[in-house]
């Protein structure tokens, strides 16, 4: 889906990127809310295991189920994750961070990959308390967010694939 002058997205080559409307399951950022927003994921609390971020897949609250599909550019570029300092990231930022975090090309200089790394490591600063004490979440929101994006992409493409000859 990442389309640049030298990297041509497969969906663009198929003539679909500008015509598809993408399923949007994000809990959108409310500017007046000062708390972090995990965007695409939710918390799962299990007393015997701990707390994790999880891709809800189809297990969504009614407002997230009933959002209308949106064109690719706003789906890809609109911030959907907000960290504890107020920094935000779009689906594009999350995917490019994940693909580049082990080396290779760098992200847009306006996106703080150091801060996203901290959000991932510190799990938004959220803590889980059970009978053993207080611990961090067992994972960060990045990989579950990417899993949820894949659910959105597959849900978007399913009608097109079902109608192929």
Summarize, please.
The protein has six helices and eight strands. By secondary structure, it is of the alpha+beta class. The relative contact order is 0.19.
Which descriptors would you attach to this protein?
alpha+beta, two-stranded antiparallel ribbon, 8 strands, globular, about 160 residues
Q: How would you describe what is shown here?
A:
The chain has six helices and eight strands, in the order H-E-E-E-H-E-H-E-E-H-H-E-E-H. It is an alpha+beta fold and 165 residues long. A two-stranded antiparallel sheet has the order 1-4. A hairpin with a 5-residue loop joins strand 5 and strand 6 (88-90). Helix 4 (91-100) packs across helix 6. The longest helix has 21 residues, at 142-162. The chain is globular.
Tell me the major beta sheet: 2 strands, antiparallel
Mean of pLDDT:
83
Q: In total, how many beta strands?
A: 8
Derived structural class: alpha+beta
Number of helices: 6
Strand sequence of the main sheet, in spatial order?
Answer: 1-4
Uncertain spans: none
Helical percentage: 25-40%
Based on CA atoms alone, the radius of gyration comes out at: 17 Å
- What fraction of the residues are assigned to beta strands by DSSP? 15-25%
Q: Which quaternary structure do these chains form?
A: single chain
**What's the SSE pattern?**
HEEEHEHEEHHEEH
Q: What is the general shape?
A: globular
Distance between the termini: 24 Å
């Amino acid at each position: 889906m990442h389309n640049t002058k030298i990297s041509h997205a497969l969906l663009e080559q198929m003539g679909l990127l500008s015509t598809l409307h993408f399923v949007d399951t994000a809990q959108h950022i409310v500017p007046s809310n000062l708390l972090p927003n995990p965007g695409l994921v939710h918390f799962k609390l299990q007393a015997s295991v701990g707390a994790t971020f999880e891709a809800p897949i189809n297990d969504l609250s009614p407002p997230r189920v009933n959002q209308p599909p949106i064109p690719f550019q706003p789906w890809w570029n609109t911030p959907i994750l907000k960290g504890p300092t107020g920094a935000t990231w779009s689906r594009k930022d999350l995917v490019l961070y994940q693909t580049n975090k082990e080396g290779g090309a760098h992200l847009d200089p306006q996106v703080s990959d150091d801060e996203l790394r901290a959000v991932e490591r510190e799990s938004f600063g959220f803590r889980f308390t059970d009978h053993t004490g207080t611990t961090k979440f067992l994972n960060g929101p990045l990989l579950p967010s990417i899993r949820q994006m894949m659910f959105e992409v597959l849900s978007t493409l399913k009608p097109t694939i079902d109608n192929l000859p």
